[in-house]
Amino acid sequence: MDALTKREKEVVVELLEGGxxxxxxxxxGLSPRTVSNHVKSVLFKLGVHSQSELIExxxxxxxxLGLGETMSARFRMAxxxxxxxxxxxxxxxxxxxxxxYSGPPSLAQLRRAARAALPLDAERRTDWRDWLELRARADxxxxxxxxxxxxxxxxxxxxxREVLRLQKAGVARGDLDAGDVLRSLGALALGAGTRLLGNVxxxxxxRELRMIDGFIDALAMPRAHVDD
Length: 228
Hints:
With about 230 residues, the protein is mainly alpha-helical.
């Protein structure tokens, strides 16, 4: 087996990721003909007769084809792109939640903030999928969470001040720890959001919102007026 060139390895890795000749050509700034020639060269060198055979061989024996380093580079590129999308998603989330807390203190602000974070539209559903993928990668990484995940966690913790503001205004119960309240609400929202990614019917949305609203309503001071 003749050794594959660096470009041929890159083409094979893109094929493994579901790429097509046209998309690979655009990615590397090549003509489709050049990419096709790379594919033909790889098929000849490996003694296989189709792209499907090539992909099967590459998946079964990536090290034999010398794809390890190229696949690692491809993963790093994908990770950087994912972190960039999550960075933009965090900025959108912060803006939505800060807008929800505008005006006089009320539990309605907490409800609006929770709704602002849930995947209730296409953009936020995409953001949630990116966050969950980033979180899964961070959990599998022995080096700990990524910088974006730390940013999300840090920002979430900084929202303690909003719960404290509601408590000082006499709107929310003062006997509860603000951090505990926010962590519990965050856990509810995480569960609700994950379920909504699989089912965004009106019934499922109403069910999840009722659960979160029930938690927030329980934070009200006894006989306190809750602004709906």
